[in-house]
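ARCHIVE CARD
SHELF: 3
SLOT: left
DATA:
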Amino acid sequence: MIRIEQTDGLWLVTIDRQDKANSLTGEMLRTIAQAAEDAAEQGARVFVLRGEGKVFSAGADLDEARAGLATDPVWERLSGAIARLPCLTIAALNGTLAGGAMGMVLACDLRIAVPSARFFYPVMKLGFLPQPSDPKRMAALIGPSRAKMILMAGQKIEAEEALSWGLIDRITAPEALMETVEAFAADARGASAAHVAGIKALI
């Protein structure tokens, strides 16, 4: 359900559970977190998250969420591991991003989405709290009022509006998504891991 590929300094992590809208189990979250931790240790220059199919991720698997996954520390382990990566991190959003899956995406440096992508985090309606770092990262990107629109007012944000807010950085056609990722990754892949880390640390 999670594929990890490494090519010339680029780590590509793909969520592939299309029959369940790429919803995330605890095992999947731990696998992605471990990949991010390994990438940091092994000198990755670019780390990319993507989904397979028409949805990036619907968030937590609801059965596991009700059984305790919603409050499991693995979510913070994952988003923290991505935020700490000293390389360029990119979320390639092939479709809608929902719920707890937003945490790992908010922790990335760049977010690229297809025009059909929508963004929502229905914690108010579902009775869960968001992961502790998610509201802070969201508010840092789009401001507190817009973060409240998503987290408290339950609004579903279309791609164009998400771009205008700064929630995503680029909209691209589905067939050009990975081409855009590769273009964004090219300079970092051509540099040393130390140089990539040095520039990121300055920012």
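SLOT: right
DATA:
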Amino acid sequence: MATTGKVRGSYAKTPARRREILEAGIDVFSAAGFRSGSIREIAERVGMSQAGLLHHFSNKSELLAAVLQLRDDRSAEVVPIDDAHAGIETIRGWVALMDYNATVPGLVELHCTLSAEATAVEHPAHQYFVDRYVFVVSRMKHAFERMRDAGQLVAGTDPEGAARAMVALSDGLQVQWLLDRSSVDMAAEMRRYVRGILTVDL
């Protein structure tokens, strides 16, 4: 029998439904925090059972990693990382992102908690974080290389070293901030570090 090639039933809605779940996940974790937010609340927001929700993911950890991936996709709107815009604007965007992160503590908590747990090779989100750090460091390195070639970096500054230091500082500041939000201004500390290796105004 010939077929039309169309996907029938609930499978036809899977990509859109998955996106809806992830959007709800960001809303829940942003508002309630990682510990207080729950799969049940996400499911309620999209009108599904918890079992139905998890049908779209292998397990809870995969769902949480997918929420973080969507957050990263949104971050790309703040931090220009494409070849056409890589450079000082990438670094300015990263600092602006630190300011934004201070408004979504639940997502910061999710990132810090899941990234620590995912250091275990068998963790479902392990590869996501491996790939994420490779990608982020490589794009930051590219931005610093562009800046070096434009004379915007202090002489002797290694682009890859600067990229890794920037990412490491970002992660460390987020942990310190989660422990005591009155003790550190993440964006201000990041700005202070970056200004120390630039020859131009940030």
